[in-house]
């Protein structure tokens, strides 16, 4: 018997006059709904948040939500029919659903282009300002900086190369905080940018770093570089002075690291500890809320974001602006299709024109990379009812109240100098967008979410607003506000006043839920590799490496002293180590994965079978283009799933990303990898951080209980799987000996992988000894798991050191040899890296960060390297920089990856 509902029990119209309704619960096929005196019968199961028609729609007619078009009918659609487009059909096809889907879409993504009527443009008047103000307790800075809601010591890495330094330094200083109650935290701001030559995002990167430093929530900031990166402290300092940033008001120091990693950490500790009394002396005072600048974000959006949570932020923003404060709307590509609404009330025609220029520039940049700005919605968005960018944008734009005037359209990270309502150019990638708002001066972030995003920023409090009561109840320990109360009858006025009061409390020091959870992420708008479309066709159709080993000359001779290595065997797998791996499927799951592995390691879980647990936190999976970048990512992820050192692997999804668990299952099936060997957990679907932690711990416990016993096995050079890479100058002697080592291992049946960007391949000493031809091309793609031993060259789309070792680790190598000529570099999270040098200038690192200083008779170096490999593989030696924590991990986006 079919279930029967009154319309209000089962669905909601965003606005009267819409022809498509949003299901407020899952409605099975055949469900009967009474609507305005008529009876609708659903032809297919409609998931919660998905849409069905309430009126007949003719072919070519617009489908409407909030009175705006989000597509055009491909055929006649009758009342009660499920509406679905091709991209959502594709998304749902990789999900594990228990009901039938339509065979084909019934509407296409199409919205008429917006054209600004400059001739008829009418400037909008500002809403009347309130005569009186309200106050909060904040940290008064100079007039140009404003008032902070927090008082943090920030440790800022100028580029990605000092990211692991500031993380380690922050960790060492946490215990000091108990003595300084007025300091809210000592936090690292580590990011992925500035690590490659001539970055195309240089201007916005410098602007962001400058803005990070003068944000009013900063009590003091230590800025660190090595002095030799493509972006340096000197460049940041010059940018601050030239653009009149109020750096004079900030307790700060620029430090270029010299010498060993450990001594640099000691130097950093001394600087920060000297500052702590002064930062602690800063006191909260009563300040007008006109000093609040709030960043408005949405992530993990669903069909209710534009109905409850985003309009709530619109109400709060309008209220704040009338008190003299400022609000910032961002995420450029998530407003495409909503231009008529965004520009319905604008301060002047110049602002309207600038807004459209920024949108068009964003479209152009993505087109250079073979992508479309309209491709933004993630798999999680589509699963939860946001069919395309137009529907997502129409809802996202509700963070601007209908009564609110758009006052300014600004560049990414451009300072907000006055009160009013701003639009800031940024990608839809949540963390990248938030970084721009923090740089612009926002001292609070409001983050709406349908799925339950757990995102936080290190030194600006994030208030998370969830769209529905059911999702709030599932994730109550991780969310601040339940906007679902509006769907259940509470007036927007009443709910808005409650949340506005909460805003003042959090601005005054009450910790948000995210701050209590103790995790945060930083991601600046990532570099893009193309500045035009001239190379697009070539890049879209690159040659595909064969995957077969490259033939090399075999005349290395015998090892001076035969050497054997002790490995561990589990049934058909032989490995030098056995780790428990948590692979976050996106940026937002990364810090939770770190927290869980720290907990497991502290408990000593799995020992002695598992040596340790590792999480590979990264910045991908959300808000980046698909195509080649997504293929690179998926291939590299699966390289780690199948890595010989990984005994047990679990994938941890946030729940709303593009590359969710079901996506990864599908990719494993496509690549012939058994998904049953992998665990899966979801922060959002499993009920939040606490519950997902329990689930992950239980899964690993079950795997360990069922595991077979391990045996020790001795092997020769044929058991070695080595990656060799280099940075800086390479002596002929070093090149000659590494070539000899390569030949020995390959001749014995082992594996050697060298990245394409390694200077070794261009040295005569290495290449002439190995190759009989001059044109040697890569044999494997970036991050590809090697299936046949021998000699391989791995494609590397960038010069970025960490991106290189991330791809190299996924190939299956179990140890890396890094020949460094400038300074020791970051190491991999679980594949041991031995850093070696032969140049006299590198002697300053001997006994500190270097593992091997190659000196004396070069003919003895190969044996010396093998002895160090043996000690490392057998866990009798731990590489120095791994021990000290100079560890990093980052996927490449290739030549065509771009933020969306």
UniProtKB/TrEMBL annotation:
The keyword Transmembrane does not apply. Residues 138-280, 568-700 form the D-galactarate/Altronate dehydratase second domain. It comes from the Bacteria. Gene3D superfamilies: 2.30.130.110. One of its GO terms (molecular function) is hydrolase activity. Pfam families: GD_AH_C (PF20629), GD_AH_second (PF04295). Keywords: Hydrolase, Lyase. The keyword Hydrolase applies. This is UxaA family hydrolase. It comes from Paenibacillus solisilvae.
